[in-house]
Q: What sequence folds into this?
């Protein structure tokens, strides 16, 4: 019986030990200066870009199995990158400097790039599903859930 109580005591101690530490907060919650906030936003944009590039590479590998498909995927990606850059420049039409937009400008641009790039990653996931499923009957719904009518 003593072993059971000792085991229960150890389990309670171990389970409570994690509650004493503050939870890790995202960069945005802990940044205290504009420079730090700008770096957090840049990190978000870099992560979104990395995810997009990974999906694009995987999509190219799948598309290479079909004649002419890889060239079309490359053309679509180039067009999308041109669109993204034009979209961001359209939002911030003044000269790109802190004089016109203030010190939050780099942060705003980075978060815009991160958001638009993340949306494009969802599109690339849908394309990847279509290439993975040769009958082309899969997609990602508005909530990010994979659907199929096969």
A:
């Amino acid at each position: 019986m003593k072993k059971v109580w000792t085991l229960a005591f150890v389990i309670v101690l171990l389970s409570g030990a994690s509650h004493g530490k503050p939870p890790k907060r995202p960069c945005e919650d802990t940044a205290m200066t504009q420079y730090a906030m700008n770096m957090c936003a840049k990190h978000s944009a870099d992560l979104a870009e990395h995810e997009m590039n990974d999906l694009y590479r995987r999509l190219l590998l799948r598309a290479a199995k079909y004649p002419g498909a890889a060239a079309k995927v490359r053309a679509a990606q180039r067009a999308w990158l041109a669109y993204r850059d034009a979209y961001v420049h359209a939002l911030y039409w003044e000269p790109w400097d802190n004089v016109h937009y203030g010190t939050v400008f780099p942060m705003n641009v980075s978060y815009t790039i991160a958001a638009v790039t993340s949306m494009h990653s969802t599109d690339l996931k849908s394309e990847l599903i279509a290439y993975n499923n040769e009958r082309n009957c899969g997609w990602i719904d508005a909530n990010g859930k994979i659907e199929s009518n096969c």
